[in-house]
Design brief:
The strands form two sheets. The chain has a ten-stranded mixed β-sheet, sandwiched between helices. A four-stranded mixed β-sheet has the order 4-3-7-8. By secondary structure, the chain is an alpha/beta fold. It is globular. The chain contains ten helices and 14 strands. Helix 1 packs antiparallel against helix 10, helix 2 crosses helix 8 and helix 9 crosses helix 10. The chain has a single domain, classed as UDP-N-acetylmuramoyl-L-alanine:D-glutamate ligase.
Amino acid sequence: MAKQRADASTSTALSAWTEKFPSATIVVVGDVMLDHYLLGHVTRISPEAPWPVVDVYGEEYRLGGAANVAHNVSALGGKAVLCGLIGDDEAGGRLRALLAQQGVKPDGLVVDAKRPTTVKMRIIGRQQQMMRVDREVRHPLEPGPARQRLLDGVERALAGAQCLVLSDYAKGLFTGGLLKELIQLAKRLRVTVVADPKVANFDGMKGATVVTPNHLEAMQIAAGRVTSTEDVMEVGRHLLERLDGEAVLITLGEQGMALFERNGGYHEIPTVAQQVYDVTGAGDTVAAVLALGLACGASMREAATLANAAAGVVVGKVGTATVDRRELGAAIHRLVETA
């Protein structure tokens, strides 16, 4: 067992990889969402029911789900191509406009009139999320024109990419063998695959280069398959064997990350978060930065350390957020200070 230690040379090496991010092209395929935030003050309790009354003073729209992964890639200087489904609706148009503002190519977005654009509305009071309201359809994507257009778009995008990110939010996209087709396509084109899975589709990620479940997901997936689901090392090794990939990276919240590699390597990567306000979208940041690092030639351990540093930044922000290279550089520097 090896715990990540950082020194000045480590910081310099990691920072050097971030300078190469603009040379990387990342294709993101997954459940695309629009995040809608209502921002307000809480000053009283409703006389109608024991709930806070939020006086709204503003609202924001942000990229969510797979779109947030692509946004994170773009925010760090990489080239992001987003592939997924949106509806023929106002939310879909708003999402496209946001992608254009953030420099994300929507080349692989497919309009499916049978399902609306997924929207998550969050009500924020006192800098905390008080309620979430979802508008979505989660039925499986059936074989047909929309599915074929999606596959065709991914194949075109991968021709000029170094990494494919599969961003699964269990909204029905990754069903019917689609994951297997995408991973086989990436392998044929010699493109690295980073998979951020949900429990229901975990086995479909078999063959991905690296998967990034969080601690709860990893324990749920391994339940009944290992003798002790409290043992992160046992769970990680089980998942690595089950998926037949190069690595499994389990995110552990305030405890950092645990990286398991096919060659037998195990590394604990301690968190660099200074204060945690909101973990919304942190997994998106991890997938994006891990992909950027691997696309630029970093080792799995270096890329995971970069992803961990980036996650430590976004959890200090409210709502779905990104990290830029200046913030990531400061987080990398803190690795040395806390080592």
